[in-house]
Amino acid sequence: MFLSKVHIPWQQAKNPYQFHQALWKLFPDCDDAERDFLFRVEQFQSGVGAHVLLQSALKPEGSEQSPLLLAQREFALNVPKSQRLRFRLRANPIKTIKDSGKGTVEKKGKTFTRTVRVPLLHEEQQQAWLERKFQGFALLETLIVQPEPVMYFRKPKEGRSGKIQTVLFDGVINVTDQAQFAAQILHGIGPAKAFGCGLLSVARV
């Protein structure tokens, strides 16, 4: 695995939808591959751009074109059971509910009411969501929940806009399953990964 620091110029950074597209340029031979990287915006300055923390299975290839690869290191997922770790996670805590106003959909000969994703806005709901995501690989020992402004984005090709509600989680976990923990680090946690959510960063306590 590789952990990289990347700068995305303002022209691309001003629209969160384009972050994901910009980072793909660091993997020039993987146009048809499925996304195997996660990222989190660490610093954002209007008119200048954004500094991004990028985790990837493949080694990013830097160039003089944007985005700029600032630093990089390789790391191994070798965390033993019962290891206590500090963590940081930007996530999009949601629940899925049925919405009859959206109509129905046919699947395997059966009719289902369409569903919509609803953000979880209360801190106790957000903590419960996180505990469910950690279940099976880590115990949550301490937690700080930092609400963040609504993230608005625009999809130019589709001509429509959207928004997501993100939360920044910081705390301490105790690893209970080494293999499951490594899988979660690799695949990320929760939805909205294309918008910079899901990257679980850890460090020894």
Could you characterize what this model shows?
The chain has helices at 10-13, 17-24, 123-134, 178-187, and strands at residues 2-9, 37-45, 49-56, 68-74, 84-91, 94-98, 104-107, 110-113, 115-119, 138-155, 160-175, 200-204. It is an alpha+beta fold and 205 residues long. The strands form four sheets. The protein has a four-stranded antiparallel beta sheet with strand order 2-3-1-4. It has a four-stranded antiparallel beta sheet with strand order 10-11-5-12. The chain has a two-stranded antiparallel ribbon with strand order 6-9. The model has no long low-confidence stretch (mean pLDDT 89).
Shape: globular
Instruction: Characterize the main sheet.
Output: 4 strands, antiparallel
Query: What structural category characterises the helix and strand content?
Result: alpha+beta
Task: Provide the spatial order of strands within the biggest beta sheet.
Answer: 2-3-1-4
What's the tally of helices? 4
Low-confidence stretches: none
Number of strands: 12
The helix/strand order is: EHHEEEEEEEEHEEHE
Round the Cα radius of gyration to an integer and report it: 18 Å
Strand content: over 45%
Give the proportion of residues in helices.
10-25%
The separation of the N and C termini measures 21 Å
Look at the structure and give the mean pLDDT: 89
